[in-house]
Amino acid sequence: MALYSPTIELKDEEISRLRSMQGFGPVPGKKRVAATICGFSINENRLTLDVGSKQGVKLGCPVECSEGLVGTIEEVESNQCQVLMLTSVGLQPTSVGKTQLVGGIDLSRNPHLLGTVRGENASTLSMTFADPKAPVQIGDLIVTSGLSDRIPSGLTIGKVIQTESNEEFGILKARLSPSFEPGTLDVVFVLI
User: Fold this and answer.
1) Which of the four pLDDT bands, split at 50, 70 and 90, describes residue 99?
2) 127 phi and psi, to 5 degrees?
3) Is residue 152 within 8 Å of residue 143, measured between CB atoms?
4) Is the pLDDT of residue 44 over 80?
5) In terms of pTM, does the model score above 0.70?
6) Is 29 exposed, middle or buried (0-12, 13-18, 19+ CB in 10 A)?
């Protein structure tokens, strides 16, 4: 029994994630396509999914899991695609798959605090706020703003784990812990 306990716990977590994904509400103007992860490159921060152009997947489509936004589609073939995860260091500050990724503080607190998000390393994101005096706090939930034509509003990006202000240059940055753990993902949705 002790040998199987860790495996049972992992499977219980997976079942909980899948059940929560079943309860996702509709996203206006988007359709969810379920995809299984069939490859993971930790060095490149990429995932390979078992869906492609035959299922309607296009470049720049957002990919979400039960915890929030995972990344965007970077390459598409007929029956598979590549996802560039948010944690990718190569992620440009204002683009994810050629669409803007602008985050905002949890909509319940203040929907008007905006900034750009980029990958910092394999486990951390960086966010630069438009307002250098934004009242950002550790633990704040960062969500997508909806200012992109491809990425809808309200998808969780991550939580603030550290803030850094440089008043001399008028810059406010935050480090974020992404909402997902790449190694635990099995199934995701592509929003087309």
Assistant:
1) very low
2) -130, 130
3) no
4) yes
5) yes
6) exposed
Contact 137, 146 (CB under 8 A): no
Instruction: Check if the beta carbon of residue 131 is closer than 8 Å to that of residue 156.
Output: no
Say yes or no to pLDDT of 112 above 60: yes
Is pLDDT above 50 for 100?
no
Residues in contact with 38: Cβ distance below 8 Å, sequence separation at least 6, in sequence order = 48, 49, 50, 80
* Token pair recorded at residue 101: 């990724």
Extract the tokens encoding 78.
Answer: 């007929």
Vertex 93: Cα angle to 35 and 184 (nearest 5)? 30
H helices of 115-178, in order, are none
Report the 10 Å Cβ neighbour count for 76. 21
Q: Of 118, 116, 129, which Cα lies nearest the Cα of 163?
A: 129
- Residue 148 CA to residue 11 CA, distance in Å, equals 35
Closest CA to 191 of 46, 14, 39, 21: 21
Q: Do 55 and 37 touch, CB atoms closer than 8 A? A: no
Residue range 123-168, pLDDT digits in tens: 899 999 888 888 888 998 998 888 877 888 889 999 999 999 987 8
Structure tokens at 32: 């969810």
